[in-house]
Design brief:
Layout: H1 17-43, H2 48-63, H3 69-74, H4 78-97, H5 106-134, H6 140-168, H7 172-185, H8 205-221, H9 223-233, H10 245-248, H11 256-262, H12 265-282, H13 287-304, H14 312-341, H15 346-398
Helix pairs in contact: 1-2, 1-4, 1-5, 1-6, 2-5, 2-15, 4-5, 4-7, 5-15, 6-7, 6-11, 6-12, 6-14, 9-14, 9-15, 12-14, 13-14, 13-15
Length: about 400
């Protein structure tokens, strides 16, 4: 294998906002459990560790998705997979909304969250493949910013919207139905993108599996790929604490409406600005350095939170700054991946990095949940900051010593 194939034709006329819309449902499958179930679970008396366990199931589904990502690259069309997954996400969210929240239903909620997140991986594969095909090397940083803004707005704005609907609509099923309708309507953007040709349509399953493996090996042999893998597994840029902010709202004396705004519309704006800024940076400097710098901003943001007064204003201010920093991190991380993977077997290669990053995010999330039960909120936040500092120091020490063939940065 000599490297990723270069696309023979790239459609560039569409503005990259379409990737934000298409990726929004994937973010919603993470945001709804963390924001809505987090806040409602806290009000129902669930311990933070139980809430972290439920929310963590959405991470677990994404932790191994590179294993089945070749299905998205080598079987049905990207658009067909997107539509199938959107239907499954809608059904899963509806089931979550109508399930009562209590200690007894934690196993059921965990299963529903996992199942919905698993289905969403196929929507992610489809969107990633469409992005790789419909962009060029010179525009992928900006496209990555829009792509991740959809994901992150789904986690913030979508999660906040879910909490608002659960609190204000007469019946929980109405919230589920409304969120499902939003998910399906995002598919209208599929008409604006060119469908890439399916790879190796006439080849055997074994030949397709070998091709996917060869593509992964090619990435892992490159210096840029190995640096990317190191950054993917380090406990930085995970935004893990964000998934517990809904349950921390009462500690800052924040009302449900304030939490839904800060983690919803307000957080959505903050993270979109962060993603746009990160996408711009990723097009104008070394992708790995851009990601490391963004993660350093995130460390500063989480380190400042324990020292803030426990008021609604400071809950909003510190959370929005953390959310902005998270936007910087995810956009620069995605820009780094897109600069490495090329066009062939795009979903398989992208999801090797994302799955590793997600698994270590789950690891950090579970640590933070346990630390909170023992050392409370300040200890949890300072633990995330400490992990980030240690990871950045490690990266600075070993990055220049990583071997591998030259590849685009």
């Amino acid at each position: 294998m000599t490297g990723p194939a270069t696309p023979t034709r790239v459609a560039t006329k569409q503005h990259p906002w379409v990737y934000a819309v298409l990726y929004f449902p994937m973010g919603l499958t993470l945001g709804y459990p963390s924001v809505a179930l987090g806040y409602l679970g806290s009000k129902a008396g669930l311990p933070i560790s139980s809430i972290a366990a439920v929310v963590g199931m959405s991470f677990l589904a994404h932790g191994f998705k590179f294993i089945w990502a070749p299905l998205g690259d080598y079987t049905l069309s990207r658009k067909a997979w997107w539509l199938i997954a959107a239907g499954g996400i809608s059904a899963g969210i509806f089931a979550i909304t109508v399930t009562p929240i209590s200690e007894a239903t934690v196993p059921l909620l965990s299963a529903l969250v996992f199942g919905t997140a698993f289905i969403s991986t196929f929507l992610a594969f489809a969107t990633e493949g469409l992005l790789a095909h419909n962009t060029s090397a010179s525009t992928r940083g900006r496209a990555a910013g829009w792509f991740q803004s959809g994901n992150q707005f789904g986690q913030t704005g979508g999660g906040g919207l879910g909490l608002y609907l659960m609190k204000h609509l007469p019946q929980p099923w109405m919230a589920g139905a409304a969120l499902g309708a939003i998910v399906v309507s995002c598919g209208l953007c599929l008409f604006l993108l060119e469908e890439p040709e399916r790879a190796m349509q006439s080849d055997s399953v074994g030949a397709r599996a070998r091709d996917a493996w060869n593509e992964l090996v090619g990435v892992m042999k490159s210096k840029a790929g190995r640096i990317g893998l190191l950054l993917a597994v380090l406990p930085i840029g995970t935004g893990a604490a964000q998934f517990l902010f809904g349950s921390l709202g009462p500690e800052w004396n924040a009302s449900a409406d304030v939490v839904s705004f800060v983690l919803g519309a307000g957080g959505g704006v903050a993270i979109v600005i962060g993603c746009m800024t990160g996408g711009f940076i990723a097009d104008f400097m070394s992708k790995a350095k851009a990601y490391a710098a963004a993660c350093a901003v995130g460390v500063l943001a989480v380190a400042a939170m324990p020292f803030s007064p426990r008021t609604e204003f400071w809950y909003a201010a510190t959370t929005l700054f953390y959310t902005f920093a998270l936007g910087l991190s995810v956009a620069t991380f995605t820009g780094m991946i897109l600069s490495i993977i090329g066009d062939r077997a795009a979903a398989t290669k992208i999801n090797l990095f994302i799955a590793l990053n997600t698994m270590f995010s789950l690891f950090v999330l579970r640590i933070l949940g346990s630390v909170h039960d023992r050392l409370h909120t300040d200890g949890m936040l300072l633990t995330e900051a400490g992990l980030g500092v240690a990871a950045l120091v490690l990266f600075a020490l070993v990055a220049s010593r990583i071997p591998g063939a030259d590849r685009a940065h």
